Amino acid sequence: MTDSMSNTMNPMILLCVFVGGLLLPGMQKVSGMHVYTEVEALNGTDVKLRCIFSSRYPVTFVSVIWKFKPLHGRPETVMYYKVRPYPPPEGRFRNQVVWSGDVMKKDASITLLQVSQTFSGTYTCTVRNPPDVHGRDGEVVLRVANKTTSFIPHDLHLDIIWK
């Protein structure tokens, strides 16, 4: 390569490195989340709803909100987590949900106790770990079946806890 060619390329390379250094850190802040999307359960069983998240930052200020949208009716909060779990003091999920995750292992799962058909609907898991706050929310659709013959597991990762 000639000296005149290398002199004209150096500013271009420097500009690319500079612009890349500005853009790349912003693109790396997006967190990912994987949630198992469709679950069937038997009436009266305990069902674990998994919410596994990822973040490039240490898990220090993580918060989790699980919400529920029934087939008919208004949405409601199922569980809130900030340092420790806060189950709902009233409503359909009072004494019906327990925290079964471990945020240090990037697991924000919950377990619904003795589900009934009123638990059928869409559950949303929202995880935030500042400054990693731009991740997608995960959704799980739960269908509760009354009869054993209609139970077809759609998700091999579903944990059902039999009593």
From TrEMBL:
Residues 25-143 form the Ig-like domain. Keywords: Disulfide bond, Glycoprotein, Immunoglobulin domain, Membrane, Signal, Transmembrane, Transmembrane helix. Its main location: membrane. SUPFAM superfamilies: Immunoglobulin. It is a single-pass type I membrane protein. The keyword Isomerase does not apply. PROSITE patterns: IG_LIKE (PS50835). This is Ig-like domain-containing protein. It comes from Pagothenia borchgrevinki. The lineage of its organism: Eukaryota, Metazoa, Chordata, Craniata, Vertebrata.
